[in-house]
Design goal:
The structure is a homodimer. In chain A, about 30% of the residues lie in helices and about 25% in strands. The first copy, chain A, is α/β, with parallel strands linked by helices. In chain A, strands 8-7-6-4-3-2-21-22 form an 8-stranded mixed sheet. At the A-B interface, helix 11, helix 13, helix 14, strand 25 and strand 26 of A face helix 11, helix 13, helix 14, strand 25 and strand 26 of B.
């Protein structure tokens, strides 16, 4: 991780430029940007054509956000994220959107604009870009994170990347996209004002209102107000925290909590787990480490990665000499150390998880450690976080895991402020499950947007805006594609169904060899079971299973049944019945017949 | 569900007696109770022998609570609960404690005393009683719920059941057990004062302090105080909510919320999901139904079951004619109906789940419905609850799912009150994960209990109290037994490991027939896969797998390798390598060799 000379601190508006050598060595190779404008004078957009908007992900779900704006012969995509698998998507690594429609219309796509660098907004890019290559537009940090992904997938240099800053406007076909500064739990987040012949649309991306941000400026509320005065046709708004009343607290509030905990942790080593992407949080940790005279080490691949990029680009200001390599931590007294680590969601194999299970190659947790989990469990992760907390406590560490975090998403009052500033004709809640969308819709109603102008849509449903009027105009293919290992889309519902069956009650394989001519049983049946019962204790059941299968096969032979499908069916039925009666379980039964 | 005549309401202290006919028809067959005392004058306990306490479940976990008190030649068991499987216990129905030690010492067990009727306190009884039959002591509702379980397991009439009331004391060997009224989220809950030659112990069971309980009296704080003055050696205390500051609100607070919602739901049908065991909640729903002129129908097997028992025993007071059968609801206008239902945790196949997925045989949810989920998600269930909420909203119902519940477990201030009243020499936090136990321990420290007198123990660890001194004295077998279908304990770590493997990446079965004498390949290999890839799209991969397997088998034949173990190993290794290289997945590979 490179460090900036504190004498020339990076100014908030323009992240510090890397040194020439560093720039040459590590700066991403970027094309000359397409002509675009900085500042408020924007290229004009000729009105007239209808605008269509369709989301291919991110509605009625949290994750895989991707929305297409289509006007005339041009398509602009906003974001391209992944989703994490549900608990019933056994063995699946991640979920990406079905982009059949994009592939079909690839010649009309003018570019992808990215609101920020979270996985649910950029994570599907490597997979989608392999299907349809498109130029990308995003802030510096966002594109740096994208480049890391492209590299992992062997796409370095094959995709055009255009760096933008808040205030810039880019012309994409008959539409323009203006980037507007917002606050979120990752730096470099923007909202978009998409000006089209069919109207002016504002897409908030993920945002909150933070009056005291750690880096950069407060969300550009004035610009939302100006747009509202110009006339916003449609507002697509983040619904994640629409159920929560009040305001989301500023990121600096976490700083206050950290300050108290740093003081409390005097004499102990600090281990702080947080989201790798939350550079602002890491900045505060670094600042307090300096204040309290501690060194900082970083653990966890994604944390090392993101912090490195952030420091290089100037989003993270680190005093020289403060950071030490994780391999060198034993050279320093524990009470002078802070370890910043991944694993705030209790993820298996994260650095904190390995520490909790005494499996980390450098960090051995004990009573001299004070652990802070600076994150809230994402819904679904509560038990995995609990497990790690319990294990760390067993090792003797003091663990603080509550109230050292604030959300990155706006709550009800903030949402209403943006709605009121934009004063849109149409309100389209996005980025949420159905209940979130409904709640956001009710907020819009509460500030006076008429019910008929509030659009609850779904992925694949095409919205058309024409001369101030709206209607749904059909659907396009949309859905999920499961990624497992290197396979994309080859794990579908049948494979999942089978995995579920195997997971529930295991498997019985029945193998027999029969004579091809006569159908007589030549060898077997042999029974092999996995995941069903502990065989050593269930020998009589296994033997009874074998005998039952044998009876069926011999009956088939006697009756001259040679159609394999029929034979297998009968074996399956007989064994299912037997095993259910005996065990009330239904293992998968797989008859395999060899012919000699 | 039988109803009581409102003219003679059941008094809180003594639940109404069923009519003679009903009593004869349905009253549980109970033995004449062992001699026991009502009121404050208790049989004396001769001091002298050391007392040993060991928990076989309920420590460092939530669930399967069971504790044994051993003094001289006598053992008394407190509770016998089950736990629900973790997400990694694939296909497992429930988890019960390993009671090897109880079976070994069965001749010394004088009885099981039950604190209340929740599954994590009584759910393992049918399984354990089959291994060691013991007399049971509990309040009327608790034993009625136990009887339902015994009936399901064919144990009716085979177990001695003794009904007790708060204030009663039972002599069990050299120990006495006094039952003390407490408040909890199920009626008939008690704490225990266990007087032994080795000291007086108080076990709180699950409790809260409710100054305005719906049924029965407030927790008998005075009695805890009296015991504290007599001298409590050890206090075993519920740690579930030890992390939560303040007080748990009274059950009546939910009533206030319900009142508001009943008013808001005017003109719509009400559907209210809550825990079947929370009779107090159902009572309030019944009361408001009457107030607002609605009928009540009940849906869900456990809800019908528990409400029926509760009404029969007088824990639930229902005005005559208020309740209608679920099959009759169409005879009444929707706005005059409240349906009380199971499914507050989003459990698959519960009544509310079936309603949400349009699969309920009587209830079709739509915009005329107002659904209330009167429960908080138990940690781990957040996403299942969300799913049901989203589906119900999609059907057009209004859904309220937050803040219509209070916990049944004491928070920090209540815990400290009981600690202060009891003034125990030793404090033993129970009923919680490690973090809960640690937090409860820190509360004890905060009110002055010395650190050396605070005992964090674990299942299987034996605590000995002798003349005011404490030490650990070894361990007994303790752990978990998995129940799957009718099988108890035959799903162990190997079976689970296999299920996990199958769930992750599926399975490849490789079947070949070889000549027994020469080792030559006679038929096959055939490849069958399940849960791995969608075969139709992966034919070339499957073919390559088959060819690789064939090459290995032929090589083995050529090299005269006839040892099946070796042949299978080589096939497994070759295929694992191939498949991982091609797919980055590791399906289970099952070679099966038939010999002719």
């Amino acid at each position: 991780m490179t460090t900036n000379n504190p004498a020339t601190p990076a100014t908030p508006e323009r992240p510090g430029q890397p040194s020439a050598a560093a720039a040459k060595a590590s700066a991403p190779r970027r094309q000359n940007p397409r002509p675009y404008h900085r500042g408020r004078r924007k290229p004009t957009v000729k009105p007239g054509l209808p605008l269509r908007i369709v989301s291919l992900g991110g509605l009625n779900e949290i994750g895989k956000n991707i929305t297409a704006y289509e006007c005339g012969d041009d398509i602009v995509i906003v974001d391209c994220g992944l989703a994490f698998p549900d608990s019933d998507m056994l063995g699946v690594d991640l979920v990406i959107p079905d982009v059949t429609w994009l592939v079909k219309n690839k010649d009309r796509i003018r570019g992808v604009v990215l609101t920020h660098g979270h996985e649910d907004h950029i994570g599907a890019l490597p997979y989608v870009l392999k299907q349809v290559n498109m130029p990308l537009y995003g802030t510096e940090l966002t594109l740096a994170l994208v480049e890391g992904k492209l590299k992992e997938h062997g796409l370095t240099g094959k995709v055009k990347l255009h760096v933008v800053k808040p205030g810039d406007t880019v012309k994409l076909g008959c539409m323009t996209v203006e980037f507007i500064n917002v606050n979120h739990s990752i730096a470099g987040s923007v909202a978009l004002a998409i000006n089209t012949p069919g109207g002016l649309f504002v897409q908030t991306g993920d945002f909150k209102i933070d009056c005291t941000p750690i880096h950069g400026e407060m969300i550009d509320l004035a610009r939302f107000g100006e747009l509202g005065k110009e006339g916003v046709t449609g507002l697509l708004m983040d619904s994640t925290n629409a159920e929560r009343p009040g305001y989301t607290l500023s990121e600096r509030k976490v700083g206050e909590a950290l300050n108290t905990l740093f003081a409390k942790a005097e004499g102990k080593r600090l281990i702080i787990a947080t989201f790798a992407s939350n550079v602002h949080r890491v900045q505060q940790i670094v600042d307090y480490a300096q204040k309290y005279g501690r060194h900082v080490a970083v653990s966890g691949r994604s944390m090392v990665n993101v912090c490195g990029i952030a420091a290089e680009l100037g989003y993270l200001r680190v005093p020289e000499g403060l950071v030490v390599d994780i391999d060198e931590i034993d050279r320093f007294p524990k009470e002078k150390m802070v370890i910043v680590t991944t694993g705030s969601q209790g993820e298996a194999m994260s650095a904190l998880y390995r520490m909790a299970y005494s499996d980390h190659r450098k960090v051995v947790v004990g009573p001299d450690d004070f652990v802070i989990i600076s994150a809230n469990p994402i819904p679904g992760n509560e038990k995995t976080v609990d497990r790690v907390v319990n294990e760390l406590m067993r090792l003797g560490a003091e663990v603080v895991y509550e109230e050292v975090h604030v959300s990155g998403h706006a709550r009800q009052e903030e949402l209403k402020i943006i709605m009121s500033l934009c004063k849109p004709t149409y309100f389209i809640p996005v980025h949420g499950e159905y209940k979130h969308l409904m709640k956001n819709a009710s907020l819009a109603r509460s500030i006076g947007i008429p019910d008929k102008n509030i659009i609850i849509t779904d992925i694949g449903k095409v919205m058309e805006f024409d001369k101030g009027n709206f209607k749904f105009v059909g659907t396009v293919p949309a859905g999920r594609v499961l990624v497992d290992g290197t396979g994309v889309g080859d794990v579908g519902s049948i494979v999942l169904r089978d995995r579920k069956h195997l997971a529930q009650d295991g498997l019985i394989v029945v193998v027999a060899t029969i004579d091809g001519a006569s159908g007589a049983l030549v060898a077997g049946p042999d029974i092999v079971s996995r995941g069903f019962v502990y065989v050593r204790e269930s020998e009589s059941l296994m033997e009874q299973t074998r005998l039952t299968a044998r009876d069926v096969l011999m009956d088939c032979a006697d009756a001259h049944v040679t159609e394999w499908g029929t034979i297998k069916s009968r074996v399956k039925d007989a064994l299912s019945k037997l095993l259910y009666e005996r065990t009330k379980r239904s293992p998968m039964i797989l008859p395999v017949i060899m012919e000699v």
